[in-house]
Amino acid sequence: MKNIIIKQRSDTPHWVGDGFPVRSIFTYNDLAKDISPFLLMDYASPVEFPPTDKRKGVGSHPHRGFETVTIVYEGEIEHRDSAGGGGTIGKGGVQWMTAASGLVHEEFHGKNYAKTGGPFEMVQLWVNLPIKDKMGAPRYQGINNEQIPLVNLKNDIGSVRVIAGDFEGTKGPAMTFSPINLWDIRLKAKSTYTFNVPSGHTATVFVLSGDLKFENGDTLHEAEIGVLEPVGDTFTIEATTNSKILFLGGAPLNEPFIGYGPFVMASKEELHQAFADFNSGKMGVIGKIEGTET
Ligand code: MN
């Protein structure tokens, strides 16, 4: 039975552009080695945006060496990138963007959402790529709410939406480069559930809202992340209040990585190369087709 070995929270929000008031729950500089292949989590906790005609968000910026995964709990997000990927994702949807060899992208509130305003809540994860895939082709997966299977837990105690991987035989739609389980879990107050996870995978629990108690009595609360001990293949949580939980699991990559700003590579030399390639325009321009000179 797995219990928590590391707990972390952040109470200092910062703005990403003018659209995303986020707290960095963990980054490639702290817990990422214990949560492999996950590198970073930004959490925009529930906030209300007023109606506007302005585009709110973050303009053109590069990434290389990993994937950005944006889970929209409330609101709407619009994405465009220099590899031709793009789309708008609403409540319950996920954008799974593989930067790989590099691209520039922009992330804004969706036009319809901006017009009406309303509640906004999202998580952005950065997922590392195996070294052999870091310089592969970029890819964009827009996954709508309807494409994500919902598993109701027995006795009506809650549900699991399978974004990636497998939950009790139900498969998630996201294609990944290494084995990952990403589950959007809801548990009703005063309910307990035992989750089975692959032995040898990392296992991490993030609480968006609610209160959890683990087998050994340890607790986890709103905006806290708990890394579970590596040994074992089950963990049991009791939701003491209605809880919204994100489970992150995966086969650890066990490869060196180093991040700086928007790039995560295997060495300092590769990071320098990433900056050089971005500065010389090799990661493209949004709205132009790769390989054409204008
Ligand atoms: Mn980005």
Offer a quick outline of the entry:
This protein has 294 residues and is mostly beta strands. 6% of the residues lie in helices and 51% in strands. Manganese (II) ion binds next to strand 5 and strand 10.
Give keywords.
disordered C terminus; globular; binds manganese (II) ion; 294 residues; mainly beta; single chain
Q: Kindly report the name of the CATH homologous superfamily.
A: Jelly Rolls
CATH architecture designation = Sandwich
* Overall radius of gyration: 19 Å
Q: Enumerate how many helices there are, as a single number.
A: 2
Shape: globular
CATH class type? Mainly Beta
The largest sheet, given as strand count, sense and whether it forms a barrel, is: 7 strands, antiparallel
* CATH topology group: Jelly Rolls
How many DSSP E strands? 26
Given the helix and strand composition, which structural class is it? mainly beta
Order of helices and strands: EEEEEEEEEEHEEEEEEEEEEEEEEEEH
Query: Termini, distance in Å?
Result: 59 Å
Strand content: over 45%
What is this structure's SSE topology?
Blueprint: E1 4-9, E2 14-16, E3 20-26, E4 38-49, E5 57-63, E6 66-74, E7 77-81, E8 86-89, E9 94-98, E10 103-109, H1 111-116, E11 118-128, E12 139-143, E13 150-152, E14 158-164, E15 166-167, E16 170-171, E17 180-187, E18 191-196, E19 202-209, E20 211-214, E21 219-221, E22 224-228, E23 234-239, E24 243-250, E25 258-260, E26 263-265, H2 268-279
Antiparallel strand pairs: 1-22, 2-3, 3-4, 4-11, 5-10, 6-9, 6-11, 7-8, 7-10, 9-12, 13-14, 14-17, 15-16, 17-24, 18-23, 19-22, 19-24, 20-21, 20-23, 25-26
Bound molecules: manganese (II) ion (MN).
Manganese (II) ion binds at residues 61, 63, 68, 105, 107.
